[in-house]
Amino acid sequence: MKSKVLIKKASYDNVYPVIKDIFDVFPLDVENKRVFIKPNILGPFEKEKAVTTHPSIISSLIEILKEKHPKEIIIGDNPGIGGYGSNLKSAKVSGIYEASRGYYKNISEEIEEIENPSDVLDRLLVSKSILEADILISLPKFKTHTLTQITGGIKNMFGILAGAEKCRLHKIGNNPDKFVEFLVDVYQVRIPDLTIMDGIIGMEGNGPSAGEPRFIGKIIASDNAVSLDSVVAAMMGVNPNDIRTINVAAKRGLGEIDLKNIEISGDFEVIENFKMPSTFALGVTHKATSYLFGLNVQPPHLISERCKKCDLCEKHCPSGALTINDYPVIDEEKCIYCYCCMELCAEGAFELKDRLVFAKNVASKARKIMEKFKN
Ligand code: SF4
Ligand code: SF4
After folding, report:
1. Annotation: CATH topology of 278-374
2. Which residue blocks in 123-263 are alpha helix, DSSP H?
3. Which of 237, 276, 332, 366 ranks highest by number of CB atoms within 10 Å?
4. Cβ neighbours of residue 84 closer than 8 Å, sequence gap 6 or more
5. Which of 84, 312, 341 for a ligand 1 pocket mutation test, highest count of atoms within 8 Å of Cβ?
6. CA of 330 to the centre of ligand 2 (A)
């Protein structure tokens, strides 16, 4: 049977009927069941920044679920690395806590260790509420991601990991290819039953937090997050085969990468001039050489005027590459290019340099490599 992806035009004032239609296409039997809702709460970002799932999606979803008499509803996430110091603070600043009407739970507090989730990972620390859920609904955001290119349905499930577990995975998965294998391992721990993506105002450029909001006007849903991500990549104007998470998940037989094998209904369109992260271009056009020499990566660049010296980036850098002297300084030799510091910083103080500077960096790295060969 073909995977199905539904795309509906929507605005934040009009979410309820759209989610109703989604449940008509993807009916879920939630009666007397524990339902867990997993939004994307990256950190303490206001909803206007388009970093987190919009609260109106949460409130409409709760309304619809309540009509179906579940036993329990829990809404939660593990925002950022180490929980940004406060899970509840992030939920409150994003408006999700209030929209959750008493169903929000700090799931970072109750953790369970699961053993041997893959050939490489010996154990994972996962929030207990996720493991106990009968039904899991994932609510990712339509965004780009400097490390994984897009942050979609597969990547949203990384938030089931609690505390410093994300940090540990970044450290042992210290290159994008390895890290993506881990992401898919985590996705497989608990595959969501339904994924509803907030694509009303998404993010282009250097997401997931330092990009620019972009109006897209769509909610996208599927009972298969891999197929959904493939359709989302195509909407962004890129080939799903060029997105590592989708590639790995499709190879494991978890969903469809070929749009011909997906039944897409509704308002599919390729978004004109959608900007991918600056880490994406070289990765695609010069894949072989860039992977070989690690040229498609650059450390984040600090805009010191924006830095409030809160020290979150220093605390959560998985490789110890970042230290705050007067301002944060990155040791390029130690940096594993995970972009966690950039993702974490609520002030948007880290950026990737523009492509011209980036290209110059690449040229300089290539020169250094050539010099090494000569010597
Ligand atoms: S760069 Fe951002 S996260 Fe790091 S210290 Fe400055 S404000 Fe805090
Ligand atoms: S400096 Fe930033 S990008 Fe580099 S390893 Fe640390 S958190 Fe990751």
Report:
1. Alpha-Beta Plaits (3.30.70)
2. 128-132, 153-156, 165-172, 176-189, 225-235, 244-251
3. 276
4. 43, 44, 90, 312, 344
5. 312
6. 7
Q: What is the DSSP string of 152-164?
A: -HHHHGGGGB-TT
Is residue 313 within 6 Å of ligand 1 at its C-beta? Answer: yes
Q: Is the shortest distance between the CB of 347 and ligand 1 below 6 Å? A: yes
- Residue closest by Cα to atom 4 of ligand 2: 335
Q: pLDDT for 299-345, tens place per residue?
A: 889 999 999 999 889 988 888 999 998 999 999 889 888 888 888 88
> Which candidate, 316, 359, 371, places its Cα nearest to that of 340?
316
In the chain, DSSP finds a helix count (H) and a strand count (E) of: 15, 15
Domain 3-266 annotated CATH 3.40.50: yes
- Residue that has been written with the tokens 């994008």 in this structure: 176
| 309, 314, 324: residue to mutate for ligand 1 pocket, most atoms within 8 A of CB | 309
Q: Give mean pLDDT, residues 44-55.
A: 95
Tell me the domain boundaries of the chain.
Answer: 3-266, 278-374
